């Protein structure tokens, strides 16, 4: 059987690409990888060769194309993992889907002000009430999920799931910008960062040469 192909952007910057890549790697699903650096001459044209939206990530499985990070994870879970990308428990599964959707569509202030940049190390600074509220909400989600549903393992719902993959880019954001956490949320952050697959992504990111000024905090933060 020919493995699917995952088309991704820069590993240093593309938070959306990290999610399905990490989920598939951690779940042991074999796939081919195509990396298209973003915001470079010809990038959009190259992305449109694969993606109907001109965006990445995109999964190509035979004649099927699946775009959007959450949709890719859902498809992989159903086709290759017998649905095990979500918890078997009904209530835990419902909450996992809810917090994944919240990350998928929310936290705009965090995304805009703390863009994923694995090479960056910035001292923490208070930026706005909106960013602070987003950080506190993420810490709350991590803490509540771990305390209510995480008894069977180190992840949000015990076993590694799509929800963990959805929040993985936040771990790099918080590390790069020195976001202060404590307690359960801090321990979960460190668990994500220590993953073998996260470290492999990080190593690849460090080897990239592209620099995107719009993802460098010193260029976007108000002086």
TrEMBL record:
<dbReference type="InterPro" id="IPR040079">
    <property type="entry name" value="Glutathione_S-Trfase"/>
</dbReference>
<keyword id="KW-0808">Transferase</keyword>
<dbReference type="Pfam" id="PF13410">
    <property type="entry name" value="GST_C_2"/>
</dbReference>
<dbReference type="InterPro" id="IPR004045">
    <property type="entry name" value="Glutathione_S-Trfase_N"/>
</dbReference>
<dbReference type="GO" id="GO:0006559">
    <property type="term" value="P:L-phenylalanine catabolic process"/>
</dbReference>
<dbReference type="GO" id="GO:0004364">
    <property type="term" value="F:glutathione transferase activity"/>
</dbReference>
<protein>
    <submittedName>
        <fullName>Glutathione S-transferase</fullName>
    </submittedName>
</protein>
<dbReference type="InterPro" id="IPR036249">
    <property type="entry name" value="Thioredoxin-like_sf"/>
</dbReference>
<dbReference type="GO" id="GO:0006749">
    <property type="term" value="P:glutathione metabolic process"/>
</dbReference>
<dbReference type="Pfam" id="PF13409">
    <property type="entry name" value="GST_N_2"/>
</dbReference>
<dbReference type="GO" id="GO:0016034">
    <property type="term" value="F:maleylacetoacetate isomerase activity"/>
</dbReference>
<dbReference type="InterPro" id="IPR036282">
    <property type="entry name" value="Glutathione-S-Trfase_C_sf"/>
</dbReference>
<feature type="domain" description="GST N-terminal">
    <location>
        <begin position="4"/>
        <end position="84"/>
    </location>
</feature>
């Amino acid at each position: 059987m020919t493995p699917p192909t995952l088309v991704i952007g820069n590993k240093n910057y593309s938070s959306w690409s990290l999610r399905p890549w990490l989920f598939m790697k951690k779940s042991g699903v074999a796939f081919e990888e195509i990396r298209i650096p973003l915001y470079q001459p010809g990038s959009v044209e190259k992305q449109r060769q694969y993606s109907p939206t001109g965006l990445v990530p995109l999964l190509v499985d035979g004649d099927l194309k699946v775009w959007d990070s959450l949709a890719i994870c859902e498809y992989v879970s159903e086709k290759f993992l017998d649905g095990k990308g979500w918890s078997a428990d009904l209530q835990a599964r419902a909450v996992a889907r809810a917090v994944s959707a919240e990350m998928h569509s929310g936290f705009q202030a965090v995304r805009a002000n703390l863009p994923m940049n694995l090479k960056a190390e910035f001292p923490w600074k208070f930026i706005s009430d909106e960013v602070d509220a987003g950080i506190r909400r993420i810490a709350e989600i991590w803490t509540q999920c771990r305390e209510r549903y995480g008894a069977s393992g180190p992840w949000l719902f015990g076993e590694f799931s799509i929800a963990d993959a959805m929040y993985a880019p936040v771990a790099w954001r918080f590390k790069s910008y020195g976001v202060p956490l404590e307690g359960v949320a801090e321990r979960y952050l460190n668990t994500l960062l220590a993953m073998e697959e996260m470290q492999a992504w990080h190593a690849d990111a460090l080897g990239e040469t592209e620099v995107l000024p719009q993802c460098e905090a010193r260029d976007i933060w108000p002086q």
